[in-house]
Design goal:
Number of helices: 3
Helix content: over 70%
Structural class: mainly alpha
Oligomer: single chain
Strand content: under 5%
Radius of gyration: 18 Å
Order of helices and strands: HHH
Distance between the termini: 53 Å
Number of domains: 1
Shape: flat
Number of strands: 0
Largest sheet: none
Amino acid sequence: MDLGVIASLTTVASMLRLSKTRIFYAMTHDGLLPLIFAKIHSQTTTPWVSISIHGICCAIISDICSIDILDKSASISVSVTYIFAHIGVIALIQFLLINKF
């Protein structure tokens, strides 16, 4: 059981690390975050400041919390994200149907 939890947390953490930094980069270009998150490394062309800040935050949180708390919070956040994504799709479809006719 613990091996499955560790494997799933590793997968979720990798996915979040890859996606969240790019989301921060896009949000910076939309004016929602400070410009420091949009700094691009000259050789690797990645948002290195965003990756560094996110990595430091993840290290601090993983040092403070136990694996049980991280497991439950990861499961809850994935479930909530899944639900809100589907609610958004339903709302968009209804909006498009109302404006079409």
